Amino acid sequence: MSHININGQPVERLFLWGHSSCAISYDNCMKVLIFGGFGGIGRHARRSDLLLLDPIGGEAKAINVSQSPCPRIGHSSTALGDSIYVVGGRADPLTILGDVWKFKIGANEWSLVQCSGSQFSPRHRHAAAAIGSKIYVFGGVDNGVILSSLHVLDTQTLQWDAIPIQGEWPSPRHSHSMVAHRDNLYMFGGCDGEKALGDLYAFNVQACKWKKVNVAGREPTARFSHSMFVYNNYLGIIGGCPVSKHHKELSLLDLNSSVWTHFMINSTGSDLFVRSTASIIGHELVMIGGGASCYAFGTKFSEPTKINLLPVKSLADTVSHVKNTEECIKGQKPESADKSRLMRSGIVNPTEVSDDNIGHERVPSYCVLRLERKYAKFGKDILKKFGWLDLTRKVCSEEEGKYIYFPILKNFCTLFKDTMTGELADILAAQPIGPESLLVKDISETAALDTLRACGATKLEDKVIKVKRAPVSPLQAMKEAVASLVGNNGLPLHLLEELPSRWQRLGDIALLPVTSFKDPAWDVVAKDLWPVVAQSIGASRLARQGPIASTGTRDSTLEILVGDNGWVEHRENGILYSFDATKCMFSWGNLSEKLRMANLNCKDEIIVDLFAGIGYFTLPFLTRAGAKLVYACEWNPHALEALRRNLSVNEVGDRCVVLEGDNRVTAPKGVAHRVCLGLLPTSEASWLTAVRALRSDGGVMHIHANVKDTEESSWMEHVSRSIRDIATSEGYSWEVSVIHVERVKWYAPHIRHLVADVQCRRKL
């Protein structure tokens, strides 16, 4: 294993986690294309950088593209032909993405892919892999809900399909890994919200069925946020959480014989490979990024690293052959030439791969290291530095705190001997050691072991194993807290069926679904209930959603349960929205459309937004699309208050004219290059207003509506015919056509939220 000496760009640009990478052919050479992630130069943040790395020469190059996806983490990137497809991710703590972007390698161009077909919900920390022209996506997280769906995107038809459940379907998970090999997808590990998973599944794209893979040899331990790759006929796994268990182990599964082989990487301990990416370039495994922990915001990043897999594969072939040869007698040892080559290459620690271990399972043992209290901090620092401390068990004390017992891993038990090396033993005998004289930073492994022994460290069997309790998910915490409240107050247990399985967040407000806690019996414990729910899910304020009021102003009916007001600040796509959630509606489902509007080139354009609300589309037009001027029409006084505040806080108020009242009266005429009609279920009552707002030579309208899935074609014909007739009645000779239909979301069963881009041009 060796670090890659980076040139051309500061190496800090590759200090990332939660990014994506793909091996691609660029200028007739295989290189690694890296996108997004958290970290980078200066203040660590989510990135949208596109970097090209030559792992052989170490040259890193930034690819500058004018239009690109918003910064994100937890997305996936998949290489297909001359393109890279980026799916989903998380733009900020409250914004989960479901968009698809395509990067054309030769042209260096990004484009937002307009997909149709089955509904694909936003997600991050999912896994994706490609077979043929199709990209398969499994699992992930969407606003706290862990998914178990398998979707496939056909990159030729640009249609999503949801794969029906068949076979041994994997449980919901996130932070897992998935790769493709021939006609199979292989998926390993992940987290189900409460624990790490260690199962291996295969999905055959011909049979469309999942099944658990039966293997021989010791299986990799459960983990998440790891990396997975395919090299020749081997499936490889490296890194992941918990850090102490996996960051030095490389596991290979022979896909022909289904035999696992494991190798210890000769790492210094600083390369943690958590939320890293793994790419195969020739015989090199190229590892990019990774941090100290999935949830620690990048105070420690792994350097770009490459591992030569040729000697690893050679020994793995030998081990697999020995395990599967019927003539192999018990105790027979393979030739050691391959093992020696591994040791010389620095990939394998010779204490971890011995002839005795090939074909045999080592019995796990649980040990502790006893130290006097005065040496406890020093001892703990050493154990952590070299990855010897077992973080899954608790540290204990005995004899009124005189001795501290540290849980240690099996690799330390192998290394820690009863005697010191002679040289250090002589030094310590002449100069007794004290805690104040101990320095951990520069100590070697051998010296660390000897020094622990000199401090009186004793290795003992852990007869009382105290395992740390796994973190409890907010959902489980709420269930336990509310169940206790119900039981203590003698309420019927069927009330627990009304507990929500998911909720949304706006700023520091957690929004419960309208169907939760609706039984009048909850009123008996309401005073205690709402603080308990808020605390268990980590919310400062709590509210319950209600139906949108059927008034012309579409007021919110959200009910505040904990907190004294409904004003929130919500950041989305780099734009700050501030509003009173009890008075104004806010839709997460329109995120993709807001992103689409933000990515338009509206430089020098005048835009009329006929239903501005709090600035849903007005703000993207101004802050991202570069509009020269926006006329924002709105008649809800609460939305107007929020709109003016949002224009000010986003520093675009000087390019917006707010028009209060009915847009059919207030909207300007003959000025607009573009008109936005973002009202559901229909904006048809303002189509005449929109035509009058456009300039005499025409422009573009974005017309929103809820439409039955069987009536899309007839609706588009109705739109173009109606706009043409209105234009004619107003004295305009326009060619009117629907140039694009955006399928934003499913509004209800068989009812889809559509946006028709209608182009109006003066006839020549």
Provide an overview of this structure.
The protein is an alpha+beta fold and 764 residues long. It has 15 helices and 47 strands. The chain has a seven-stranded mixed β-sheet with strand order 43-42-41-44-45-47-46, with helices on both faces. Strands 13-19-18-15-14 form a five-stranded mixed β-sheet, with no helix packed on it. A four-stranded antiparallel β-sheet has the order 1-30-29-28.
CATH architecture of the largest domain: 6 Propeller
Low-confidence stretches are 293-298, 325-364, 420-425, 427-438
| Rough outline | globular
- Give the rounded overall mean pLDDT: 84
CATH fold category name of the largest domain: Neuraminidase
Report the C-alpha radius of gyration, rounded.
30 Å
In this structure, how is the largest beta sheet organized?
7 strands, mixed
Question: What topology emerges from the helices and strands here?
Answer:
Elements: E1 2-3, E2 16-17, E3 20-26, E4 29-35, E5 38-39, E6 45-46, E7 50-53, E8 60-62, E9 76-80, E10 83-92, E11 95-104, E12 109-112, E13 116-117, E14 127-131, E15 134-138, E16 141-142, E17 145-146, E18 150-154, E19 159-162, E20 177-181, E21 184-191, E22 196-204, E23 209-212, E24 227-231, E25 234-238, H1 243-246, E26 249-254, E27 259-264, E28 277-281, E29 284-288, E30 305-308, H2 310-324, H3 337-345, E31 367-372, H4 376-385, E32 396-398, E33 403-408, H5 410-415, H6 422-430, H7 445-454, E34 458-461, H8 474-488, E35 504-506, E36 509-512, H9 526-536, E37 541-544, E38 559-562, E39 567-572, E40 575-580, H10 591-598, E41 606-609, H11 618-623, E42 629-634, H12 637-649, E43 656-660, H13 663-666, E44 674-677, H14 687-693, E45 698-708, H15 712-729, E46 734-748, E47 751-762
Parallel strand pairs: 13-19, 36-37, 41-42, 41-44, 42-43, 44-45
Antiparallel strand pairs: 1-30, 2-5, 3-4, 4-7, 5-6, 7-8, 9-10, 10-11, 11-12, 14-15, 15-18, 16-17, 18-19, 20-21, 21-22, 22-23, 24-25, 25-26, 26-27, 28-29, 29-30, 31-33, 31-34, 32-33, 35-36, 37-38, 39-40, 45-47, 46-47
Helix pairs in contact: 2-3, 8-9, 14-15
